[in-house]
Design goal:
Radius of gyration: 18 Å
CATH class of one domain: Mainly Alpha
Order of helices and strands: HHEHHEEHHH
Strand content: 5-15%
Number of helices: 7
Largest sheet: 3 strands, antiparallel
Distance between the termini: 37 Å
Helix content: 40-55%
CATH topology of one domain: Arc Repressor Mutant, subunit A
CATH architecture of one domain: Orthogonal Bundle
Length: about 180
């Protein structure tokens, strides 16, 4: 199954985000984390992600006569390769961007709806910074950002850590 096609959906992106930090979750757990998503919709999208190999079953147990599965994210499968990205059409990129923005907006609204939400204390930010960059300067900046993220991306959950979502978006805004 095509990883790009599977991931380019806002609900599936939110499900992937919910598994961040090596979490193992049941579909019921996901329903608690994504209360705005109808259960039937959530089950359907979990099934799609599992069939595509993006979610792995880590356990099963009987609950009220039904089998409840526990899933874990297959991180190796959830990354879009440089080859896959290069093969994407402009419409694929439009769909991917729209899905990412829709998922980001839904996650942000869910955060703000929590009784303990404190954007100031949580260092919430959403600035946009136009930058004039040469191709060489762009390449250096992208590598610097990748290095900063790589230094933190494998942090394991701990009592003093909180899971944050960072969504860098980069594209040229001029016409030349």
């Amino acid at each position: 199954m095509d990883t790009v096609g599977v991931l380019l959906h806002p609900i599936r992106l939110r499900v992937v985000h919910a598994f961040a930090g090596d979490r193992t979750l049941t579909t019921s757990d996901l329903g608690e984390r994504l209360p705005d998503v109808p259960k039937t919709t959530l089950y359907r999208h979990v099934g799609i992600l599992a069939t595509a190999g993006l979610l792995e079953v880590t356990g099963e147990q009987r609950v009220h006569g039904a089998v409840e599965r526990t899933y874990r994210l297959n991180r190796a499968r959830t990354r879009i390769s440089a080859q896959d990205a290069a093969a994407m059409t402009p419409d694929d990129h439009r769909q991917g961007f729209a899905a990412a923005v829709a998922a980001l907006l839904a996650d942000f609204n869910a955060y703000l709806d929590r009784p303990d939400a404190d954007p100031t204390a949580d260092s919430v930010g959403y600035v946009q910074v136009p930058l004039w960059l040469s191709q060489d300067e762009l390449a250096v900046m992208v590598e610097q950002v990748r290095a900063v993220l790589a230094a933190q991306v494998d942090n394991a959950p701990r009592s003093d850590r909180r899971l944050y979502l960072l969504s860098p978006i980069l594209f040229p805004i001029d016409q030349g």
